[in-house]
Amino acid sequence: MARKSLYIDTEALSTLALVEAGLIAPVTKLMNSKEAEEVDRTKHYKGVPFPFAFVLAPKGKRNETVLESLRPGETLDLINEGKKVGELEVEETFEIDPKQRLYNIYGTADPSHPGVKNTMSRLGHIAVSGPYRVEYPLIRDNIKRIEQMKTRTGAKFVSAMMIAANPLNRAHERMIRQTISDTDLLVLFLRKPFTEEGLRYDIRYQALIRFIENFIPRNKILVLPFENTYIFAGYNELILDAILAKNYGCDQLVVGKNHGGLGLYYDKNRINTIFDHCKNIDIHIKTVDEYVYCDVCKTLVSTQTCPHGQHHHVHYHSESILKLIQSGLMPPPILVRKEVSANILASLFPDRFDNLQQLYYSLMPGSGLLERQSEEQFYIKLIELYQTSSLT
After folding, report:
1. Domain ranges in the chain?
2. What pTM does this model have?
3. Domain 137-292 has CATH 3.40.50.620
4. Where are the beta strands (DSSP E) in 16-154?
5. pLDDT, tens digit, 9 for 90 and up, residues 254-285
6. Class of domain 4-134
7. How far apart are the C-alpha atoms of 240 and 260, rounded to whole Å?
8. Pairing relationship of beta strands 291-294 and 299-302 according to DSSP bridges
């Protein structure tokens, strides 16, 4: 008799692969009903903070029919995008409350919340537990690349930073530089969400690589894709980031004090209270000051060390900078490095100009040689013209 099949999306597959690889340890398997209830109640699993139960409850009438028919001991095929990607041996099926699960993850079940809306569309009411295996090469490749980099560089102390770089700005650069100055290796986990918001992953990745290749020692930094699935999308994101970084072999997690979830743990009067209740995760958490551009200091400064008021500060607000870029405008170089802006705009608006070469030679100083110029080079030269001030 043919096996029954459970249909899962790539977000579920990625999460299952993370857990199977031990990267969310001590969670290494799907939880049964008793374990799930205990974790949701205590927010701990095997003595380590874990904010909500790890269960598999995919939505859909086809899945619901299968889940209702399962018996312990049956083996399921796991199907993703029409292809078998793994197997699961059924231990138990049990009912869950989707609204309560949404609240456990996000702190709210309000459908206007973007994370809630996304998860609600894919969350069913019947969970299945049991041993499983899945095929997902990205996770194994990440582990291998970190091990190879540590071996090649001899790194003893490794830091991690989760970054969206949407887009990469000067404050991100300062955090990166500050971190690599006191660590052997920085692993930059570049967030790769399962939504279409913001800049595409490939554009953000190329811009980040452009910065690293030209302005950072290459043996000090490694960029890896980090598929931040729904389990990382809630207000408990920092706890899970710390668990992930630790299990990838990192000794320290670096976060900015303006991180969206940091306020839940950070007491400005007692910096050491951050993650006090997460001390069993066994990774050092380092917080970095928020950086701004001060128009009196004329440079990038920490809000903790600049004596001038906020009215002198230009903040690195990613959403606002992104709006400029998505409108086709180059942000001022104090916000985004011109090489990064040029790289992003050339990728975001390919073949934007009807006759780029004519435009380039009409407006730009050059060597006198007729060389074909790229859109990226055009943007770099354009921002240099903007910065020319001899006619003031």
Report:
1. 4-134, 137-292, 351-392
2. 0.90
3. yes
4. 44-45, 48-49, 56-58, 75-80, 83-89, 92-95, 123-129, 132-134
5. 988 765 555 554 444 444 444 565 667 889 98
6. alpha beta
7. 14
8. antiparallel
